[in-house]
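== Folding the chain ==

***
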Amino acid sequence: MSDSSRRTFVQATAGIAALSQFPRPALAAFGGKASVDIPKERMSALTRWPRYGPEEKQALHALIEENTYYNALPKFEQEWQAYTKSPFVKAHMNGSSALTSMYFALNLPPGSEIMVPSYTFFSTCLAMRFFGCVPTFIDIHPKTACFDLDDAKKKLTPRTKAVVAMHSWGLPCEMDKIASWCKEKGLILLEDSCHAHGASMQGKMMGTWGVMGAYSFQASKLMPSVEGGVGMYQTREYYERAAAFGHYEDPVKFPKNSPVRAYEGTGFGMKLRMHPFAAAVARVQLSRLDEKNAQAISNLRKLNDRLSALAGLSEPLVRSDQKRVYYHANMLFLDEKKAGFQRGQLVKALQAEGVRATIWDYPEQHKLKIYSEAKWWHHPPVIPAAMPGNAQVNATHIFLPLLHGPADDVIDQYVQAFEKVWARKSEVSKL
């Protein structure tokens, strides 16, 4: 080695040594400075939900002044129909009443079994019992948190008549594969789209893949009217039965040859009308739905595209022909082995850094009391011994807040917090 080469080597080695000795920022959990210093008021403004403004107030005031409250309902239905391109729609009191009406409209023989995810809200599984139907609990895919078709194929019985796909957290199920299988087996395809306002697959809005679908406009949802819901129907027969179940005023509007027309004045015994105030708010929310979704998705992509470079951190899988939306939060999955620490340790470290990281396990329906009591059912539902997809999603997820507004500085600080935690994983593993 020449003298000049030796000098270069010594200088480079010294530089590396000096760099390795440069103190890295201490974790806030161990007394260091927190990475996120965004004022609480600003974070609250960015994450506040529902988001209402002057337009909603004006719509409500106008409805009161006009004194024509119920006109808001058909106007909303027409606008939702145009947005989703559904042949028939009906506004409902909430998502649960839309699902209940859907099961009534099926008109299945008592004892029929309907495949539903256990990873869902209770109405998806429970409302069918009023009409003699029984749930068959289907697992979710651990990489999407959506309906696991392979598990469904294993649980098909002669009593199986229908399948409900629920689009978890705004991510469409693989509807082309599910629809193909349902067609092959002669099963009725239904959708619980209560998380998926604005989501689509192959250009078709969620709720239009099945013969019927349901949405919720409850306060936490992507299109909140505080309470409210809507049903979507591919045939007039389903539409008329579902509408007349909870809307006594509808049968008289149906064609004279409709079998439901005869139930004018009574319908089928329930009153599940959407409140006109909710319809007025829903109309305003619909007009801004795509804009609000786009803002949240833009911020999420800026964040997740950087976070996904960290070992062991990933997003739910999305196909290129799926357009997903984000309900409630930004859900990420943690592989503890690849990351080098446990999920609880990560959340503690991130929260200390000022990141609003949380965990919330979705209740698994098959574990709840009512499904284990035969007295509520035509025949007892089969309670699965294990649901590995449910278990994995509940055990590996973390939630980050959705940001509804310009937030580049927040995103930068969140990324810094994550990178800091990953750089000191040996310390994180001691929390």
Observations:
- Residues 54-285 form a domain with the Aspartate Aminotransferase; domain 2 fold (CATH 3.40.640.10).
